[in-house]
């Protein structure tokens, strides 16, 4: 019975759980400070992004913990998709869009968060690949053993085969 969960992924999730509240507080504080200097559409975009990232990150971290520790493929796949699609592009937008008037502290926490997300995308992909391959092999073995148990022993008369005489 091989353990399929990934220790590096789990460590990254653990540190991400503690880093995210710090990232959120710093980002909200800097948003509060620079809010009057932003244009109206950037104000709307940043508030929407903060709400979306906050909700998505809670769901994403939960799915990552459950998927990795309990070796559940659907939850880990959901974690991987939530990391790859909404989270990583949003953080890269916050990191590289100069129209947002990025402060140095804000850039630093976005770089750390982007590093967490990038590592988790790669680690979750290889963990998912290993889990799926191992679970598929287990399924094939159980099916093979089930078919072996149903097959009649050699030399025993089988009514479906008919008689040869």
UniProtKB/TrEMBL annotation:
Keywords: Cell membrane, Cell projection, Cilium, Cilium biogenesis/degradation, Membrane, Transmembrane, Transmembrane helix. One of its GO terms (cellular component) is ciliary membrane. InterPro entries: Uncharacterised_TM-17. GO terms for biological process: non-motile cilium assembly. The keyword Protease does not apply. Signal peptide: none annotated. Transmembrane component of the tectonic-like complex, a complex localized at the transition zone of primary cilia and acting as a barrier that prevents diffusion of transmembrane proteins between the cilia and plasma membranes. Required for ciliogenesis and sonic hedgehog/SHH signaling. Belongs to the TMEM17 family. This is TMM17 protein. The gene is Tmem17_0.
